């Protein structure tokens, strides 16, 4: 009989027991692995003092891969990079589970040892997580491994017993032979789903939603100005002036959004300061706050990409916090630290010079969403997020320039000023439009400098000056449009912006690494007769 069809367990005495069909062996390993993971996830959610081992493995993968691979993943997947990584981890775990089941059907001690080894990898990753309890992480890992091995043993034993009954009574109903294994497999699957979902629910997401809903942002002492008429052109297909929180792009290193109870959260201001101090969430909210309209963009945003967004932010000015702490001579860098261990640093002078640089607690009139940094994050106009936009902020640390943030050793530039950029939203790249009067429209941004002009060129024609929407603030993007008499055929459209310093967006194409892509956007459309 083919080894791929049925597998036998090798006993210590050297005999071979009743054979387990390969499909059942594989299913047994898969279900046992799922249950073991579910138990660990349930414990992680219930205890709160240890990380999800699945997320920890993913974090280890992110921290270990070379910078070029991370850049390629972001470029190819955009905001879908995290779901793809988690799905990949789940697939690998499933394949390992299948292999473990097949191995255990042959030699159970080896299969059990493999199960424990895989769990040890997860525990090792969990121990590297910030603020993880070593004792609880190891203990829960052992419990998860024990549950998984026990489930694997029971499933294989049941499958082997049914094979024995079938061989003893050849005329017995095949359905009856399979019933016991299928019932046990179904119960194991249900337990795996229940524990996994339970662990997710216990992370506090639902409770955090209620906590955020009860928070009322204080009235800022300096409010952002009213939106002037004509600042939002409302052209169909054109990006709105303010991006809704639910649609704002998200790029960060957190595989699972941290769920932080503001009642237990603190912000430290420390390092090279004369008067280090710590603030609770309530104390931070009681400090004078400002509003500012600021466009943020990711350094991984390709020319014409959508990893950029504009919002009205509210928070405590960084300058006020630094003045309270007393910045020491030589403290040339402000390093933001996240609760998940992420760090990002930028020149201290930027925080002191820019009135709009803040520890933000609000976004578009509501408390920060969890995905965008609740309870507090850094917002610094004019800098790419990889050096400035620390979410889930836990500490502001003043250091010298030799200390590197998370992304710098991974091949990104130490400084990250946002380059003057524009994007064509209408018509969509590759779309077909009707001949006649059409409109070309988009957005342009150069935070801290503002946008003074946008030019558009169709095919090899001259550059034409586009109409600009009313200015809102130099720190946020500006909409633009150009009426176009579209003629039948294929057309190439390009745009370029000029910022408030007189710098024209360059046509020289560069990749996103090490300090942001450059070049002006070019799209192709087809005009139907």
Automatic annotation (TrEMBL):
Tell me a Gene Ontology molecular-function term this record carries.
sulfite oxidase activity
Chain segments annotated as transmembrane = 29-50, 84-103, 110-129, 135-156, 181-202
One Pfam family of this chain: Oxidored_molyb
| Residue ranges of every copy of the Oxidoreductase molybdopterin-binding domain listed in the record | 255-407
Record carries keyword Membrane: yes
Q: Which InterPro entries match?
A: Ig_E-set, OxRdtase_Mopterin-bd_dom, OxRdtase_Mopterin-bd_sf
Q: Which UniProt keywords apply?
A: Membrane, Transmembrane, Transmembrane helix
Q: Is Membrane included in the keywords of this UniProt record?
A: yes
This protein is called what? Answer: DMSO/TMAO reductase YedYZ molybdopterin-dependent catalytic subunit
